[in-house]
Amino acid sequence: MKSVNIREFTGGIGRGDPPPVVFLCPAAKPPFGREDYEPFLVDEAVRRLTAAYVPAGMEDMAHSIFYADETPIPAIIEEARTYPFLAERRVVVVRNAERYKDLSGEKRSPLAPLLEYIENPAETTLLILVASVVDRRKKFYKACEKNACLVESPQLTEGEMREWINAEMRARGRRMEEAALRELMERAGNRLSDVNNALLLVCGYAGGANTVTEADVRAACADVAEETVWQLTDAIAYSQADKALASLYQLQALNRAPEEIIGTINWLLENAYRAHPDTEPVVGKPFVERKVAPLARTLGLQKLKAAMALCTQTTFQMRNTGVDRDLALEMLVIKLACPGVRRAGAR
User: Where are the alpha helices (DSSP H) in the chain?
Assistant: First the structure.
């Protein structure tokens, strides 16, 4: 089956019945100068698929999420074969499916039931497989290539990035000047999660203005990135909980929404992880790399991973429970700046 680009695929979601198996993966031939995998677009595709094919209020009964490195394949197949209750179809998402690339395709292999399912899927289930790494020589990829809807998600080209930013601005009822767009892309780099976070910061700074200018981009980055956020970064890096809380309160005083603040913290942690000498991903922007270097150096890989997981957990709590969002942010910052955790995690 011919592969499809993720932007084309996402644009068609909701138009008719979905394919029974969707495989979201890196591109075989990404655009020049771009990485082969853009997780932000993958997450957006999964979100849209879920919204389109899981009825509102039926999430607990018709939607399941598994992780390939945690859940045995037979349990996933059993869920996928189960007829949906009070819904037209069941949506089953399997993340970390890159684990399957190292499994044998022999009949007695743990992978065999999944290969059989991909070849003969249930008509009432949408199975979504998400893999950040693939081996195109192995049977898992070949089975998806032959029988599933194979969706490739490379990083956007410069032109596509411009289109994406402009579309996001239109969705907000705004526009961005060309000079502002260039400045934003220069500061944020090629990763869409970074661009999205930067866009949130700039739009927040611009307030209700219909047009975002280059001055808005520069001022927003200078106001938040060069001052308060970087102060927060240093405070977390050196386990100064009081200063970290002071920076948090300053961001709140600047009318930054809790979702925006936690998105910024996660952005800092992700870039610190990329800046660590023992990781392959790169930050991509010298300005940001210099700023997060102390965080990468003093926390270490294990603490950075734990910190990103903590951000994800806090985000989930803020979105899905009645927890006080400001209090949740305070607890997150205190935990990130806890001296004992920093020493235990750094290496």
Answer: 6-11, 39-53, 59-62, 73-81, 112-119, 139-147, 158-171, 178-188, 192-206, 214-220, 230-237, 241-253, 258-275, 286-320, 325-336, 339-345
